[in-house]
Amino acid sequence: MSLNQWMALTPRDLVEDSLHVGSELMNALRKEKWPVVKYVNTA
């Protein structure tokens, strides 16, 4: 689980109040997995 996904799945008001972030950041978070490096099988 990425930090992005963890923050997106944590209650919104808890993240906003703890990290002092606005709705713009919260709306940009993804709840689904988003791989940093995509595996490509070339075999």
The Rg value, from CA coordinates, equals 14 Å
In what range is the share of β-strand residues? under 5%
The N- to C-terminal Cα distance equals 28 Å
Number of helices: 3
Low-confidence parts = none
Question: Which percent range fits the helix content?
Answer: 40-55%
Q: What structural category characterises the helix and strand content?
A: mainly alpha
Output the helix-strand order: HHH
Total of domains: 1
Overall pLDDT score: 86
Biggest β-sheet description: none
Shape: elongated
Record field, number of beta strands: 0
Kindly describe this structure.
It comes from Caldalkalibacillus uzonensis. This is Oxalate decarboxylase/phosphoglucose isomerase-like protein (Cupin superfamily). InterPro entries: RmlC-like_jellyroll. This protein has helices at residues 3-9, 12-19, 23-28. The chain is built from three helices and no strands. The model has no long low-confidence stretch (mean pLDDT 86). It has one domain (1-38). 0% of the residues are buried. It is mostly helical and 43 residues long.
Give a quick precis of the structure.
InterPro entries: RmlC-like_jellyroll (IPR014710). With 43 residues, this protein is an all-alpha fold. It has one domain.
